[in-house]
Design a protein that fits this description.
heterodimer; A: 113 residues; mainly beta; four-stranded antiparallel beta sheet; 12 strands; B: 116 residues; 11 strands
């Protein structure tokens, strides 16, 4: 069965600094990979996804992620963080038909002024 | 993008009562809907997967008789928490995918259930 590991429970960065959130997955076949963001008390918003093709994926709000099969990783990056980016970020993996989606434990991002 | 509406956003009920949560796909037909549960400061745990017109598939450890799922149409799935108890208090989130939504799960805003 697939699984996702987000090694960092909580990250604090200064506004304007760069950001990288780590995600490692375990899946036997080619995975569908996702990054979602959740604000307190809210549902999940899709930031970006990887199904196939270019391993560098661009998403909304200036986020990007790179799929590295050799490292089983799908790290999320942003060159300059804004205070509004403070939220919980979840990495997820699913099978090709999008069933059986599994989420990582999440990384809470705090942005310092 | 595809929109999933979840209602209510917050419900408080007495122990022993049943609560129904609705999940609707507003602008696409959801052939598959998913129900998740999220405890405070934790990740989402898949509870069940439902396909329109068929019985839901529950994850191991999820009580089928306590969490009744109905996916009667291509735009509506409901989760009924029967005989709710305080330990059922949680944040419940639905998602949907299907024709028009592509291969992506679109999530509702969630329902916070508090059982007194």
């Amino acid at each position: 069965a697939q699984s996702v590991t987000q090694p960092d429970i909580h990250i604090t960065v200064s506004e304007g600094a760069s950001l990288e959130l780590r995600c490692n997955y375990s899946y036997g076949a080619t995975p569908y990979l996702f990054w979602y963001v959740q604000s307190p008390g809210q549902g999940l918003q899709l930031l970006l996804k990887y199904f196939s093709g270019d391993t560098l994926v661009q998403g909304i709000k200036g986020f990007e992620a790179e799929f590295k099969r050799s490292q089983s990783s799908f790290n999320l990056r942003k060159p300059s963080v804004h205070w509004s980016d403070a939220a919980e970020y979840f990495c997820a993996v699913a099978s090709y038909n999008n069933n059986d989606m599994r989420f990582g434990a999440g990384t809470r991002l705090t942005v310092k002024p | 993008g595809a929109v999933v509406s979840q209602h209510p956003s917050w419900v408080i009920c007495k122990s022993g009562t049943s609560v129904k949560i609705e999940c609707r796909s507003l602008d696409f037909q959801a052939t598959t809907m998913f129900w998740y549960r999220q405890f405070p400061k934790q990740s989402l745990m898949l509870m069940a997967t439902s396909n329109e017109g068929s019985k839901a598939t529950y994850e191991q450890g999820v009580e089928k008789d306590k969490f009744l799922i109905n996916h009667a149409s291509l735009t509506l799935s409901t989760l009924t928490v029967t005989s709710a108890h305080p330990e059922d208090s949680s944040f419940y989130i639905c998602s949907a995918c299907g024709t028009g939504g592509g291969d992506i799960q679109y999530f509702g805003a969630g329902t916070r259930l508090s059982v007194l």
